Amino acid sequence: MALIKRIKLPNFLQKWLGYTKFRRFLWSFIFFVCVVGILALHFLPERVPLQVGQVSPIDIQSNRFLTFEDEEATELKREEAARSVQDVYKLDRNVLIGINEKINDYFNKVLSVVTNTALTDGKKIEILQEDYGLYLNQKQAQEVLTFDARRAEALITQTKVIVETVYSQGVSSQTLQFAKEKIFSDIELLNIDPIYRLMIKSCLNSIELQPNLIFDLAATEEKRREAREAVEPVNVVIQKGERIVSKGEVLTQRQVDILTWLGYKNSASPLVVLLGLSLFTGLIMVLGVLFFRHYRKDLYRNETYLLLLMLIVFLTLFVAKVIISMNIGGLPEGTEQVGHMIPVAFGTMLITLLLDTKLAIFVTVIFSMFTGLLTGEIAFVLTSFIGGLVGVFSVSHLSQRSDLAKAGLWVALANVASVLTWGFLNNLSWSQMAVGSGYGVANGILSSILTIGLLPYLETGFGITTPVRLLELSNPNHPLLKKLLLQASGTYHHSILVGNLAEAAADSIGAESLLVRVGAYYHDIGKIKRPYFFVENQLSGENPHDKITAPLSTLIITSHVKDGVELAKNHGLPQVVVDMIAQHHGTGLIKYFYHKARETDDTIKEEDFRYDGPKPQTKEAAIIMLADTVEAAVRSLKEPTQGKIEGMVRTLIKDRLNDGQLEECDLTFKDLDKIANAFVRVLTGVYHHRIEYPDSVLKAMEKKKKGEKNVSGNNQPAGKGSPTPPVGS
Q1: Can you spell out the DSSP letters for 268-311?
Q2: β-pairing, 66-69 with 89-91?
Q3: pLDDT tens for residues 389-426?
Q4: pTM (two decimals)
Q5: pLDDT at residue number 12
């Protein structure tokens, strides 16, 4: 807002920009346009209105890595596989049975003719020629008339053996002619009289031989279907930057198909694509608003936080687009698996550190959806989701800056586990899983580097104090803390103890304990300017307040708050810590000097002996006020028992409450009770009594010490003095 005021704009625009709702709408619109723009760069490549047979006026290169199925080549391979399948036949055993029956019938009928005494020999020969195909010369006719039952049985057996031998191998319609030739050639090899070979041939000629293998259409089609399905799709791999069409080249159907796959000839209108991207982005933003309204209204109302969130989301998407556009030459798996390198954890870690853990978890889901939209791969969505969540959890409780580097390693391990899980479930090759795992490791390292690199700039630019910054401030080597130790050592040790008290109290009510501890360390840095006016630094026992008036003492005491604020700002402490310094006394009354002044002047006003404030505005600032008050008071107890400590703690908290110092923060009575218990627990451990030994034990110890001293004294040379009397413990 301050930047807007410094820019010279028309009055009406300045007026509109003065409205928070309008500014929020403006930032949201700019964010919407930027996100849609990034997505459009991916979904709207340059259009090339080329058709099959047209001469290309330009060179066209692939704008990204692409793997797609060549449907035409795949179909050709499948047809070839189907044609290579042999026909399936089923054996019909009835065919051979029928042939054998006809063989029996033939020879039995020939035998009946030959043995028929009612027929003359001439008539028999005539019947055999006309009815049974036996065309015989005179010699053969005489031989056939001697045909008897024994010979008939032998010929039947020989004929069946020849036929069964050939048919046992299966005879189809395609091999029937070959089977017949084989049968007749085998007949010629029989070692029998020619007349009998002739009779066998005549028998088989009279029988219409049929194939015993019947074509099974259904089984054949099933085999062909299985063969087609077994064919792997023919995939075409196009590398980013690979030339698709050269200038002056006549386009083929294949080239046009590749251009279509790359989006150069997308049939969808650019306006339709932009509409889809706008709807998607709008839906994401609506989900974000719903999340804020249900879970973090404070973030939604804070314009700075919204701008920061939008910037982090935009930066993450920008890095994702850059990585997706990378081309790993000579290594198809390299470009194919590059989506595992999208550093979603970079964005989620920044949101966790700068804004809120729950918000970071929600944004992890959003980033995963964007990853799916940009890559179209579930594997990359899985890596983004798991890596993003691990990034959130690994930085949610930092204890030192090096934890950011460790967080990157945890993200890397999570990414590798995600890649391997997907690879095993989908039967990926070891090379694919190795490349994907490498990208997963690079993802974690890149996320850590980007987070560490950008965090200081975002902290400074948006005025946000992160745990990393607080950890740096808690380092005892910080210039202000070292100065406090050297110039006001009593205040330094008091601040450390206040920090321990405040941290325990913050943990008990779920406040930001690290922030409270750091605020406690710096709350009294203003005492550096005049350290000896504060009792904890008066080591010599001399009190300078004894020599000045009560109003002047009050002015010096209260000025340490303003001095502390000034020092904090000069040393670049975060505003939240500066606020704690300003608020740690609220508008409390300096009772000692007030009552001292009242002894000499009844007209003294109470307001003149109060701190300027403001009162604590947050739970954390209120905790520091209470811890500061309690520690200083309990330290003054002569015999601090647990009962005395608890009584004083609760009395002091009640006094602050009755004085109205806690009315502007959101502490509840339940919180105050938990804070009191935490104070008592810590203070009891610090100011505990030494063990009180029984009198009999003390006397025995004293007697033993005297004996040791006497022995020591007897060993001293004369004239060197008596031993030092024992010091009571």
Answers
A1: S-HHHHHHHHHHHHHHHHHHHHHHHHHH-HHHHH-HHHHHHHHH
A2: unpaired
A3: 999 999 988 777 778 899 999 999 999 999 999 999 98
A4: 0.64
A5: 54
Q: Where are the domains of the chain?
A: 2-21+33-39+269-464, 89-215, 469-686
Lowest mean pLDDT of 151-165, 202-216, 258-272, 709-723, name the range: 709-723
Contact 671, 509 (CB under 8 A): yes
- What does DSSP assign to residue 55? B
- R_g over Cα of the chain: 51
- The token duo for 140 is 């053969």
Q: Give the model's confidence band at 704: pLDDT under 50 very low, under 70 low, under 90 confident, else very high.
A: low
Comparing CA positions, the residue from 164, 176, 184 lying closest to residue 211 is 176
pLDDT digits (tens, 9 = 90+) for 316-374: 999 999 988 776 544 555 567 888 999 999 999 999 999 999 999 999 999 999 999 88
How would you class 710 by CB atoms within 10 Å of its CB: exposed for 0-12, middle for 13-18, buried for 19 or more? exposed
CA terminus-to-terminus distance, the chain? 67
Q: Per-residue pLDDT for 729 more than 60? A: no
Q: What backbone phi and psi angles, to 5 degrees, belong to 722?
A: -85, 160
The CA–CA distances, whole Å, from 531 to 583, 650, 667 equal 20, 29, 32
Q: Are 682 and 623 in contact (CB under 8 A)?
A: no
The string of DSSP codes covering 9-56 is --HHHHHHHTSHHHHHHHHHHHHHHHHHHHHHHHH-PPP----TTPBP
Strand, coil or helix: 235: strand
Q: Give me 23's structure tokens.
A: 């500014």
Beta bridge partners of 666: none
Per the prediction, the chain carries an average pLDDT of 85
Name the residue among 406, 378, 374 with its Cα closest to residue 390. 406
**Which phi and psi angles does 190 have, rounded to 5°?**
-70, 135
Q: Residue 61, SS3?
A: strand
Cα gap 104→99, rounded to integer Å: 9
Residue with tokens 């470009």: 335
**CATH 1.10.3210 correct for 469-686:** yes
CA distance 309 to 295: 16
Q: Do 497 and 537 meet the contact criterion of CB atoms below 8 Å apart?
A: no
Q: Are 353 and 330 in contact (CB under 8 A)?
A: no
Residue 528 in this model has a pLDDT that exceeds 70: yes
Residue 579 token pair = 């606020």
Cis peptide before 476 (omega within 30 of 0): no
